[in-house]
Structure formats: structure tokens, C-alpha cells
Amino acid sequence: MAPSAINLNGQPSSAKIDVFNNYANWINGKAHITPEKRHGVNPATLENLPDVPVSTREDVEAAVKSAREAFKSWKAVPVEERQAAVTKFAEALQEVAGDFAKLLTTEQGKPVALAQAEVAGSHIWMEAMAKITLKSEIIQETETKQTIERYTPLGVCVGIVPWNFPLQLACGKIAPALVTGNTNIIKPSPFTPYCGIKLVELAQQFFPPGVVQVLSGNDSLGPWLIEHIDVDKISFTGSIATGKRVMQSAAGTLKRITLELGGNDPAIVCEDVDIETVAPTIATLAFANSGQICIAIKRVYVQDTIYEKFRDAMFKHIKTLKLGNGLDSETSHGPVQNEMQYERVQGFIKDIESQKWIAATGGEKPINLKGYFITPTIVDGPADDSRIVVEEPFGPIVPLLSWKTESEVLARANNTRMGLGASVWTRNLERGRRIAEQIEAGSVWINSHLEVSPYAAFGGHKQSGIGSEWGLSGLKSFCNVQTLFLAK
Ligand code: NAD
Question: Which residues participate directly in catalysis (predicted)?
Fold first, then answer.
């Protein structure tokens, strides 16, 4: 009989977890405190947050050893039981959603409504991924032979998570790794370690020791995990620059990698749109989470015949935005998450003056708060080769550009090494589809942007990534493919 890793009948009926205190590494089912500690900073108030561990090489060794040991039995657990355990874990997260949303706002800065949406997305993603089953497939069948493709787990997987969606992106790595029979170690961003640590603490109620672990640390930790010979796969989400370093570090052990990297998403607006509806929608999508979303709209191309009216409508909309502490229910936009990012975005803001661009800003900087606040800014018509058009600012600043012909705007939209997302806005769906199909990006929307689904593959073209996560193809990325040749 296959070993049963979980006793679903014996699971606690409600998730008991103190989300706001005691942040430890979770190794082999136990909390581990490290001699050295560090802490995050609340980006809205600049107050220090509680201490978190700084993992050592010994902690990495212990976690990898325990993950490898746990893999032996976890991979033999029937898939239905693994899926059931992930579903229970997702339900437990839902039970403590309010606490996680508050913690998320405190460490990340996003308005609490957006934090609630991220927590909801986190359990919805896990529940959905526990419903997708990777089936063996008969590829060829004759009287004398049968050829079957089947999927086997890779082993020990490490999930490296960025600071903009620290909870949902961790869940999007844990669930597919576990349902496919792998074990998983989560490495949260040093800027936002709190939700990831508590997520894995909660997971201990549903999985055997070593199946899900978390290591928090400084900049040394990621390379240690990637270079480790007994780690089989890295699922990385972060910047293009770090993604290249991950690929280099993984080369020594020929590790499997999935890279979900940065983007510079264009939105192409055609002249037939309803300006009063579409302009505020685009501004909302560009400035959500203060622009700190990999698939936020980062370049807005508007057809020349409606350019001025559209610009004025966008300018009008951003005046209505309310900057502040995300815990304040009136706040529509929180701070930039950390000092480094704040300084980087300030660099783009400074270009406005030096280039003599016209720009509109909205949302007053809160006078009572010391945090990393930057007022949402729209730049009117910068040059195509300016930094604000070419680079990913990852903050609340977006350029507005004018176009005349479809072929011209497509060439400009595709003139980038990034290819994460893009959108086309038009009432003419045929035209929308024609333009959309010529855009080089992993996700392309017609009359929307930012929509994602746990059932659909998500990944970047060009330097925006390698491979994809979520959906069936995401599950496959946590597996080896094995071909069985049967002679009858
Ligand atoms: P980052 O690349 O600085 O850090 C991401 C993670 O990598 C962190 O956990 C960090 O500690 C770790 N890390 C840093 N150096 C490392 C190394 N040498 N080896 C291994 N790990 C290392 O990214 P960030 O600033 O946290 O996040 C913002 C970026 O992430 C943006 O570019 C954004 O577009 C991108 N992003 C992409 C997606 C996507 O799904 N494509 C989603 C969210 C964010």
C-alpha cells in the first residue's frame, strides 16, 4: 500500500496560527531560530518590523537534506491525497485571510483591499492547481507496441519569491510542486519575508516534516540554494538581471529552472474606444499596486486622432487617487515597497525635469507619513528611446505615446527585449485580435489587462522569462517526462 502522508480526518478544523509574532525558519517540521537576525521595514511608516532569521549554510544543508528525505515518501503518496492536502491547506489559509491581509499590507505597503485580493488569489490558486491532474498519455498504439508519456516529480524544488506579491507567488510555487510529488523550500524576498514564513508555518499542519520548508535570509541565501547539488529545480520570480544570475548559478548542476521575470507591457489604444471608460481603466491598471506588478501596463500607445482627449481623461482620473498607509481604508495607492526601488523610481521622475516633459501627477503625498510615497505620474509623449519607455520602472510612473498606423505601433510595441504582457483596446474585436496576435508577449488581452488564471499558463517571451507556471504546463514544469515503450 502506498504510504499515506496525511490523516485528513485528524486535521484541525480551524487554522491556529499567530500571524503577527515569532518568525522562524521551518526545517523538517520544526521552527528554527538563527543566531543572526534581520528585519523588514514597513514602507508606509518606515517603522522596523519584527526580527526574521538569517539562514546559514548549515540551515541550507539541513533543509535540503530533510526535503530529500521527505521526497522519498511524499512522491509515493497517491496524487489524490496530495491534492486533498493542498486543498485543506488552501482552506486553512482562507480561514486566516484577514490576518494575512493585514500582515501583507504592513510588510508590502499595498492597500488592504488589494492585500485581501492577493490572499484570496493565493488560496484560489492553490485550490485550482490541486484540481488539475497530469495524466499519462498514450502517444502511439499498435498491435505490437504501446508508447506512453508519463510525468515523474523532479525532487527538491526551491521557490524564490519577489517582494511585490510575496504570498500569491509563493502559493503559486508550493501548490504545483507538491501536487506533482515534489518537496519545496520557499525563499522569500528579504524585503517581504513575513507572509512567506507564516504561510509555511501554517503548512506544517497539513504536510509531513520536510515537504514544505522556508528559509529566510540575506543575499547569500539564493545562490547557496541554487548551487546546491541536491536541489533539483529552481522556480524563480524576479527581475531580469537576477534571472540571468540564477541561470548562471544553475548551470553548474544543470538544474531545471523556470524564470518568471520583468516586463514592459504596452497597451495599444485604438481610436474607436469609449474614452470616458477606457482612460480611467487603463490608469487603474497602470497604477495598481503603485505600478509594482510585473504585468502592469507600462507603456500606453494611443491612436493620434484621440490622443489629446484620452490624455486629458487619464490626467483627470489620476487626480482622484488617494495615497496613504494601506491599512487606512480610504487609501487607493500605497508606497513603493523599499528604499532601493524608491530611489530608482525617483530617477525616472527626475528625467521629467531634465527632459522638459509635460507630466501629470495625482494623489497628494501624505504629510503625516514618512514612507516611500511617490505620487502617480503620467508622462506626455517622451521619446521612444527614453529610459521611461525602454526600461521597466516598476513604480507609479507611465509614459503616454501617440501612434498613427497599426504596423508602426506594432513595431514600437515589439521593439523591446521584454515580452511579458500586452493589451489592445478597441470595440472592433476582429481588429483587436489581428493586432494582439502580432504582439510578442506571453499574455495578450483584448479590452483588459492584468487578468490571470490558475488554469492558464503564465510566462514571458524573450527576456521576460523561460518556461511557464500555473495551469497544466506549469505542473509539467515541476516534472520529468518519461516515455515508456511497451512491446506487447
Ligand atoms: P529581484 O530579482 O531583485 O529578487 C527576486 C528574488 O530573488 C528575491 O527573493 C531575492 O532575494 C532573490 N535573489 C536576489 N539575488 C539573487 C541571486 N543572485 N540568486 C538567487 N536569488 C536571488 O526582484 P524583485 O525586485 O524582488 O522583484 C521585482 C521584479 O520581479 C520586477 O522586475 C518584476 O517585473 C518581476 N516580477 C516578475 C513576475 C513574473 O511573474 N514574471 C512577477 C512578479 C515580479
Answer: 260
